[in-house]
Amino acid sequence: MKPAAFDHLSPESPAAAAAMLSEGTRILAGGQSLGPMLNLRLARPERLAGLSALAQLRDIREERGRIILGAGVTHARIEDGDSPVALPPMLRHVARGIAYRAVRNRGTVGGSLAHADPAADWVTALTAMGAEVVLLSGSGAERRVALPGFVRGAYRTALGPQEIISAVEIPAAMRDALWGYHKLCRKVGEFADAIGAIAVHPASGHLRLVAGATGGAPLVLSGLGDGIARSGAHPGPAALRSALAAALPGADRVKLQLLATALDRAIAKVIPA
Amino acid sequence: MTTGIGARVPRKEDARHLKGKAQFVGDIKVAGCWEAAFVRSPLAHARIRGIAKPAGREAQVFTAEDMADLRPIRCESTLPSYKVSDYPALATGKVRFAGECIAICIAPTRAEAEDLAEAVAVDLDPLPPVPDIATALAGDPPLLHEDWGDNLFLTTRHDGDLDEAKARAAVVIERSYETARQAMNPMEGKGVLAQWDHRAEQLVVHTSTQVPHLIRTGLSEALGLDQSDVRVIAPDVGGGFGYKCVLQPEELSVAWVARRTGRAIRWTEDRREHLTAGANTRQHSYKLTAYADAEGRLLGLDADIWVDVGAYSVWPFTACLEAAQAGGNLPGPYDLGAYACRTYSVATNKPGFTPYRGVARPGVCFAMELTMDAIARAVGKDPLEVRCLNLVPGAAMPFTNVTGKFYDSGDYPAGARAAAKLIDAEGFRARQEAAAAEGRYLGLGYASFTEQSAHGTKVFAAWGLPLVPGYEQAMVKLAPSGAVEVRSGNHSFGQGLETTIAQVACDWLKLDISRVKVTMGDTGLTPYSTGAYASRGMVMAGGAVSKAAEELARRLRIHGAHLLQCAPEDTEIRDGAVWNGQASVDFAAIADAWYLHPDRLPEDVNTAGLEVTEGYKPEIDTGLFTYATHAAIVEVDPESGRTEILDYVIFEDCGRRVNPMILEGQSYGGAAQGIGSALFEETLYDASAQPLTSTLADYILPGPAELPGFRLGHAETLSPYSRHGIKGVGEGAAIAPAGAIVNAINNALAPLGAELTRIPATPHRVLDAILDARAAREAAE
Hints:
The complex is a heterodimer of chains A (273) and B (781).
Chain A: E1 7-9, H1 14-20, E2 25-28, H2 34-39, E3 47-50, E4 60-63, E5 66-70, H3 75-80, H4 89-96, H5 101-106, H6 109-115, H7 121-128, E6 132-137, E7 142-146, E8 151-153, E9 156-157, E10 163-171, E11 178-184, E12 194-201, E13 206-212, E14 219-220, H8 222-231, H9 237-247, H10 253-270
Parallel strand pairs in A: 1-3, 2-3
Antiparallel strand pairs in A: 4-5, 5-10, 6-7, 6-10, 8-9, 11-12, 12-13, 13-14
Chain B: H1 14-18, E1 34-40, E2 46-52, E3 61-63, E4 73-74, E5 86-87, E6 94-95, E7 101-107, H2 110-119, E8 121-126, H3 133-137, E9 152-159, H4 163-168, E10 171-179, E11 191-197, E12 202-207, H5 212-223, E13 230-233, H6 249-261, E14 265-268, H7 271-277, E15 284-292, E16 298-310, H8 321-329, E17 338-347, H9 361-379, H10 383-390, E18 399-400, E19 406-407, H11 412-422, H12 425-437, E20 441-453, H13 457-463, E21 472-478, E22 484-488, H14 497-509, E23 516-520, H15 537-564, E24 572-574, E25 577-580, E26 583-586, H16 587-595, E27 611-616, E28 624-636, E29 643-653, H17 660-680, E30 710-715, H18 737-749, E31 758-759, H19 763-780
Parallel strand pairs in B: 1-14, 10-31, 12-13, 16-17, 22-23, 29-30
Antiparallel strand pairs in B: 1-7, 2-6, 2-8, 3-7, 4-5, 9-17, 10-15, 11-12, 11-14, 15-16, 18-19, 20-28, 21-22, 21-27, 24-25, 25-26, 28-29
Helix pairs in contact in B: 8-9, 9-10, 9-18, 10-11, 14-15, 17-18
């Protein structure tokens, strides 16, 4: 299990990294998913552009009512609260549950989002939190894409051919959000079999209920979410199961059961059943 | 502090392991050594049409055609109906499992060797695969070995008369059980480094093995070398579990290439190779019918057992040890009236079956223990009471059971009751009811078993295997400094034998363990041993060391008595010296007299000196039977299907405990592996026999967070037939967890009407069972 030969590139700026992207060039942003794929020779890029030396991507700051996490911020820094600005408790909780500490030490929030593994944590958690992804092109142009919308499906994103993720922006109001996050997995540290996530901030009118690890893009259950916002009541497991069955016609009964359980328990953290 | 038998001595080997200073095959540095990578079959069953080596690199790639002088692995057995398979080091003509070696490529680094392996073009003509037992035994199946005419390595029969049991039975329990295929996952995979030593005129092979002397025998035969021209050294070995008790095809290829090229060659197995080509164990299928009276007393058992043994027979244990052991061990610790059993060792397109810690017994214990609980439910009694009614009591010992196993000592019902007491079975029922009132599902389950350890000559001879272990030898010697050297051809690969056999020597020689140096695993330095398997190390190597140390102690007293000017019978050994009253002469002075000042010794001194090699086997060949009962309390979450182990106890009687701390470690580790079988581990295949679980993201091993805090209890019934009353214990704890845990799950789920009969009991299977039961209930209403 050794990777096929590749060249390692060290871009001098995030925009330069984006400009390097081509058919045979991929970004290395922590390598906790790409590394094993390289070793299994499932990924065989000719060149890897490494981002870890770019200090700009490790920045965490607050502007315009938004917490801006550089794409190169590691899960471990979020877990530890190693940040000049206070991080939302939900963010730190989710970081703490990602894989194992060794993975969290190197894995980055931008790398995880760009990889868009359906069973990974950030795609679902950041969707619930109403985050936006900042995409930077080789020309230096930036655009913002909201979650949902950024993740298009399993391992598919809105990233253009010469774009990288430079940052993730989270509403600062999320510091005061009510939230629930429940992950079901075979063992501690494994990828999820089902994720339920909910973030509620009544003052700003934010309530988002998301099912993750569905096999595709995170599923925003807006109908159920609106119902919770109106009634302030837990919808109950039967309503969750039927909403999931309607939204995921291909899912088997066990998958639906697991997703319903994860959602049920996430919601119960906010509203007792 | 004494460091003899019974002392909780810290392990001698741990300092180097904790400091990262141990030396595994991968750590050895040899100038000019190249690394090897294998081209492995991408298909499970195919004819090889051609293999094209990359142009210009032909000298770095070897195929079966190049190795015409290398004999295949061929394991004979005299068992009736047994069919022999030729297992070539590199596939010849056909490939029979995905991951089978086709070519070996060598280069200065592993990455370059893998580049080379990728460049080898293999032209395969796919054949219909045999992915499972059903396909293998269907009418007109594809054949793995065409000349056989079927896909059966072996069938065995035990034809007991069940008529009376059937006539008297108040309850009849019929069940089918399945256990998953697994990979053993030692932390260190296989690894081998071979080189030709021109000075010694020897092929020197460092290999990660439990059985260095056997590997020397096997390698010599395959390579056509005299055994004296081969030296095998097992350095530090990072776990064996049975995975490393057989001759490996990679050992043959690497040794052959090293000899041919004159270059040191190393190969180390990576985790993907292990999880695919190494998925070679545990997969059983059962159909059981049990007959019991209204009290729950077992009157008879009728069984069919199928073992999915894969494509090839391994050397020296064959593909059939598993099924033969399953048929022989299914009755377990119970006094069973009548028994009929048929076993089938079925060839499939999977890696060749290799015995794993517990050999067959984790499967038979699972099947038998779930059946005991089913009987208990049927007769409306506590599972513990039904067990105790059927377990062999102490008053019946020694006891020969229905399959001729000779249970040497112990009190099985007392052990089961002790486990129940340890887990507070009485208090549990109130706990269970209180939880039920909160909508929570708690369950208690038991599993009892016997562990036949150190079974010897007659047992192996009856299986007709190439290996029949006899007298285990060991050497104990007083070094010139007065320290003691122990040499054994057995091996220490995590189970602590390096420490425990030193303790045995300390027991006779009454010196601190720091003064005992143990050398193992090197065929050039140690007496022949068939190695470490079948929980035999402590009984056999320990017994041999005991015998040699006893003789050395006798000679030390003779020499000491001469130096003290007294009679040997007036001396005793303590504190590293020979004493006569208040006068003493320490071992260093005795050694000095023998090695450097023989003028101080009498003319009629024993010229064999202070170096003793002895051979030992227990007074019986049928094995010493350790026994235990495991009990587990679990909580099953019916919404997520997750099982949490709330409490887990092991009550075991393994005779004399040489080092209780090491024994506890063996219990924890074995039970952890058993929990892997019970809840997590499973090699999955698709319909074309492609392994689907090729990384640790897919093949789930339990981690620390998934394991309970084990609680242990012990009885110590000494075996009357072994030195110091020792029985083997290495495998035991891996045997019972699946039975105990799934019984606990079924106990928890009883109110929902769900019953699991298949392991691992994954959340998916638990939910399926609950949803099926719910659907059945709704259909009935």
